[in-house]
Structures are given as C-alpha cells and as structure tokens.
C-alpha cells in the first residue's frame, strides 16, 4: 500500500506540477516582489475613556489615513466610562474590522482608583495608563509587528499622510508635531528641554520648531500623546512603560516614558515638515463630563474647519444641529471676495455649530480709487493717526469701515431691528451656543435698552469694568479695540450713521468707543457731538480672533495695506 501511495503521489506530481513548473517559478517571483514591496505592519493603540463626543472625529480622520488598511491592526482598550464610549467603539469595530488586518476591543474596569473628577489624575490612574500602554507593547512584540502607533483620543490626524510620513522617517520613536487648537495656545506634543528630574524646560529651540522657522525631523528629549515606535530599532525589545524599582521620579506618564526610552538606549524625534495633527487642551475648567464634552467638541469644530470639510466617521450616525439665527433678524459675516479660505472655513463652522449666517462682500480697500472715495464723501478726520503705529489710515482700514457702514445702512433701509455683525476671522468660544442664548435671555429678562453689545473685543484699559445690574453675563465696556463681533440694534445703527462718520474718517474700532463716550482722545471725540450709543459687552467674551497681532501665521488686510496718503502720493506721481 505504501508503494501504491507513492506511485499515486508521483503521478499527481507529474500531471499537475511538472507541466506548470514555469508558472510556479513566475508565481514565486511575484510573491517575492510583493513581500519586498509590502508596507511595514502597524499596531495602532487606542485607549479610550469617556470619549464618545470626540470618537466620531477621531475615527473619521483615522479612517482617511492613506496607509494600507490590511497592514494596520488596531488594539483598543476602554474602561471606567460614564458615557457611551464602549457602545460607540463596538459599533465602529463591527463596521470596519473587515478592512483592517485585525481589530481587538477590550473592555475592563477591574482596576479601581479614587479620583475627584474627570480631570483628576491620581498616581493610580497614571499607573493604570502605563500598564495598558505596556500591554499593547507586549502585543506588538508577540505578533512581531513592525511599528506601534500610540495615539491619544483627543488627537486628530488631519493630514491623511501622517502615518506614512512617520514610517518613512525610519526613527526609533517619532511624533507628528501637533498644531495648537486654539488662539494664543503654544502647547504641543514635544519638549525641547527637560530638567534633571524630567520636567519641562523651555529652551530657545521650542518656538522656532513650533512655528516652523526650522523644518525637519529633530532629536528632542520628549514626545507625547501621539508617536510611532519602530519595533525593529535597537532597544525596542527592552523598552517598557513600567519603571523598575530604581526609579525614584514622579508617577507621570510623560516623565516615566522619557525615562524608560533613555534607559532602553533609544531616541525620540518630532516631525514638523507639514501640518499633521491637532490636539485639544490637556485640561480645562470642566465642572462635569457633559461640560467637557460640549466644550471639547466646539474646540474641535473651530480648529478642524481650517483643514476643509469637517470629517466624521462614516460608520457612526451623526445629526447636525438645526440652523438658528438666535432670534435675530440676521447674522452678517463681512468677507473679502479674495479671502476664500476664510469663507470656506466659516461655512463649515456655521454648519457644525448650527449658525444661520449670511456672507456679505467686504469693500476691498486696495481697489478703492480717488473717484470712489469722493463719491462716498470720504475725508480723513483732522489730526487722526493710528494711536499705536502713529500713521494715517490705510486703504484697507477705509474698506473695513465702509464694509461695516454698509451693513448699518442696510439695517435702516430694510428695517432690521437687531443683527449680529461678524468679521471673517472669529474663533467661537467653547459652549458658544449655550452662552449666547444665556446672554440674550438676560438682556430680555432684564429689559436692557441697548444699541450695541460686544461679543468679541480687545479691552484696552486696566480698570475693572462695572457689571450690569441684574445681569451675570454683561458689563459696561471701556475703551476697546476690534469690531470682530458685535450685536447692533436699529437705533444703534441710526446713531452711528447720523454722525456722518465718512466725512471724518477713522478706524471703525476707534469710532465705536467714541460713540459710547469711552475714548481717551478728547480732541477726537469733539468731532462727534452726540456720543450716546448704549453699549454693553459680554463679561466673558464669546468670540476671539483666530490669530492675534504677531501670532504665527497672522496677517491683516487692513494693517498691511497701502496708507491712504501714500496711495494719493503715488497717483500724483503718475
């Protein structure tokens, strides 16, 4: 029987293998080529707790990564949730796991630790976090995965090439530099210096790196929040997140990780060649989980809109809020036709915040001619100069004033009782809708007779502004800059126009405080006899600019334009 079996096997070999020997060689060569071009395997690690509000964004942008999904495994751990995080993750996993190499979702709350609130981090919570990251590292070692991507759930990979770019660096540990998520923030996910105890140390390299005055992949002593570990790099097999008995530092995930990396003989790098990622603030003044959820979501909406249409996971249900004008007759947005990117961003912000707004084309000062200035009846106010830069008005500032003036005039011609006027660079505060409704309610309930209410401005005086009696959300404003965001009544519009400001032209944000008699220049105020505008301001501003003067990527169409007198001189020379 054994001989018979051997003969049968030989016959089978002759019939089916030998005639196809050339095909076998060709298939082998093709397989070898595929292996050589196969992208490295990646284990993406998600540790989620009370993140149901950010998961649609986080997962939506992760889905867009241009890296072969069949080379990505996902290891998810969730615990101690007070919201629907686990349910959302399971729903997402069931929808996408066939696209990825493998998806593991582990839910466990067996570790107990005490905490004072959602923002409290006792040592036990840090130790638990470190143990979970270490467990994921062990999974990568066991499965012989090439790279491990740790990514915090408050980090959004807005660049679809982030993972590919990180892998291409061939660094032991590399992080995509995070962009600040709110105005004036300088917080990112890397340090350029540390103290002997492993704490943050500001160095001269930090801001040039953050603001991309230098670009590249830089050796730094600390990266955190999101980073890629090369499991083939020397030292990676010795790397652990659990400190040994000789460790006498603080129990903090950042400090411990940096210590363990150094102990393993590895280095960390930050990559800032492109915009890769945004992250929400690490902590905030959150009174409750629902408070954190509302504020964080609106922070993301403001920031994400800069990068195009806001992305949410296509595998999770989402209902956008119904559009509202907050009971106002109209919400105007002043926007230069050539500033499409600002209009584009705001369209997405309004859609996701549920704000019904109308764009109105701004007067472009750089295109104004002498003939048009005469037709408008524009004359510079005698003795006016910019109080800070000591220069005449720019054509951009004239265009800005006319843009606001045109809305005031339209209010009167269309009999609009109350409107909100926005310039095209607003950053809406966290929880904007609720806070704005509260302000409007207080105005109505206290029967406040108002002409103008600032929602965004720059307070220029150190003196404390008096609160409005009976209202918690309003103050009487002092001398202020900016016409970024303000409500205006029909009576207020009439007062502003009746003073015929075009014949005594100045910057619009100088004119407004003159009209409620809070300007320090008495000689300027003397040009306007009736200064009885009833002005108020939100106590805590609801809107700020996306960029402040001298900020990274700041530009101004008003301040950077040609001076009015310079333009006139150049035309005379022609």
Could you characterize the architecture of this molecule?
By secondary structure, the protein is α/β, with parallel strands linked by helices. Helices cover 34% and strands 17% of the residues. It has 17 helices and 22 strands. The protein has helices spanning 2-16, 21-37, 55-63, 85-96, 123-143, 162-168, 206-210, 253-263, 289-304, 340-353, 370-375, 395-413, 432-445, 490-498, 508-515, 522-525, 564-573; strands at 42-48, 72-78, 102-107, 147-151, 155-156, 173-176, 178-179, 190-191, 217-220, 222-223, 226-230, 268-271, 277-279, 330-335, 358-361, 418-423, 426-428, 452-459, 474-475, 480-489, 535-538, 543-545. The strands form five sheets. An eight-stranded mixed β-sheet has the order 3-2-1-4-11-6-12-9, sandwiched between helices. Strands 15-14-16-20-18-21-19 form a seven-stranded mixed β-sheet, with helices on both faces. Strands 5-13-7 form a three-stranded mixed β-sheet. Helix 12 packs across helix 14. The radius of gyration is 30 Å and the shape is elongated. The chain starts with a helix and ends with a helix. Mean pLDDT is 86; it is low at 1-21, 31-36, 551-555 and 566-574.
List the helices and strands and how they pair.
Elements (H helix, E strand, L loop, with lengths): L1 H15 L4 H17 L4 E7 L6 H9 L8 E7 L6 H12 L5 E6 L15 H21 L3 E5 L3 E2 L5 H7 L4 E4 L1 E2 L10 E2 L14 H5 L6 E4 L1 E2 L2 E5 L22 H11 L4 E4 L5 E3 L9 H16 L25 E6 L4 H14 L4 E4 L8 H6 L19 H19 L4 E6 L2 E3 L3 H14 L6 E8 L14 E2 L4 E10 H9 L9 H8 L6 H4 L9 E4 L4 E3 L18 H10 L1
Parallel strand pairs: 1-2, 1-4, 2-3, 6-12, 7-13, 14-15, 14-16, 18-21
Antiparallel strand pairs: 4-11, 5-13, 6-11, 8-10, 9-12, 16-20, 17-22, 18-20, 19-21
């Amino acid at each position: 029987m054994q001989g018979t079996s051997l003969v049968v096997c030989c016959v089978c070999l002759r019939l089916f293998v030998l005639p196809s020997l050339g095909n076998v060689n060709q298939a082998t060569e093709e397989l070898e080529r595929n292996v050589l071009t196969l992208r490295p395997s990646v284990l993406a690690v998600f540790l989620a707790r009370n993140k149901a509000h950010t998961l649609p964004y986080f997962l939506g942008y992760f889905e867009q990564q241009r890296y072969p999904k069949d080379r990505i495994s996902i290891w998810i751990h969730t615990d101690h949730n007070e919201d629907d995080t686990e349910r959302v993750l399971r729903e997402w996993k069931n929808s996408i796991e066939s696209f990825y190499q493998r998806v593991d979702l582990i839910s466990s709350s067996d570790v107990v630790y005490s905490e004072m609130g959602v923002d409290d981090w006792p040592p036990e919570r840090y130790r638990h976090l470190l143990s979970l990251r270490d467990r994921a590292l062990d999974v990568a070692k066991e499965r012989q995965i090439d790279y491990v991507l740790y990514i915090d759930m408050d980090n959004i990979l807005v660049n679809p090439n982030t993972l590919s770019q990180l892998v291409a660096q061939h660094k032991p540990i590399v992080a995509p530099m995070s962009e600040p998520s709110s105005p004036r923030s300088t917080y990112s996910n890397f340090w350029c210096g540390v103290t002997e105890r492993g704490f943050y140390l500001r160095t001269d390299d930090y801001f040039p790196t953050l603001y991309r005055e230098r670009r590249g992949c830089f050796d730094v002593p600390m990266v955190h929040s999101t980073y890629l570990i090369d499991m083939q790099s020397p030292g990676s097999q010795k790397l652990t997140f659990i400190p040994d008995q000789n460790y006498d530092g603080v129990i903090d995930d950042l400090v411990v990780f940096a210590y363990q990396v150094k102990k393993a003989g590895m280095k960390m790098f930050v990559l800032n060649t492109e915009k890769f990622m945004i992250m929400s603030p690490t902590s905030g003044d959150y009174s409750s989980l629902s408070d954190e959820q509302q504020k964080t979501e609106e922070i993301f909406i403001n920031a994400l809109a800069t990068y195009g249409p806001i992305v949410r996971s296509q595998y999770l249900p989402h209902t956008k809020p119904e559009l509202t004008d907050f009971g106002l007759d109209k919400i105007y947005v002043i926007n230069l036709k050539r500033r499409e990117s600002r209009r584009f961003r705001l369209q997405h912000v309004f859609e996701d915040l549920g704000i019904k707004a109308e764009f109105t084309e701004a007067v472009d000062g750089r295109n104004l001619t002498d003939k048009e200035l005469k037709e408008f009846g524009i004359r510079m106010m005698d003795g006016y100069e910019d109080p800070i830069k000591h220069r005449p008005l720019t054509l951009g500032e004239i265009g800005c004033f006319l843009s606001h003036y045109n809305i005031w005039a339209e209010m009167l011609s269309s009999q609009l009782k109350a409107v909100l006027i926005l310039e095209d660079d607003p950053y809406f505060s966290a929880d904007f809708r609720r806070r704005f409704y509260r302000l409007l309610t207080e105005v109505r309930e206290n029967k406040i007779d108002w002409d103008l209410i600032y929602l965004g401005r720059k307070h220029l005086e150190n003196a404390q502004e008096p609160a409005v009696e009976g209202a918690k959300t309003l103050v009487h404003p002092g001398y202020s800059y900016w016409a970024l965001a303000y409500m205006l009544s029909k009576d207020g519009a009439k007062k502003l126009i009746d003073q015929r400001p075009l014949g005594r032209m100045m910057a619009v944000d100088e004119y407004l405080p003159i009209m409620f008699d809070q300007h320090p220049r008495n000689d300027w105020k003397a040009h306007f006899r009736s200064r009885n505008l009833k002005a108020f301001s939100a106590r805590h501003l609801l809107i700020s600019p996306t960029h402040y003067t001298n900020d990274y990527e700041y530009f101004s169409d008003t301040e950077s334009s040609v001076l009015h007198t310079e333009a006139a001189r150049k035309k005379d020379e022609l």
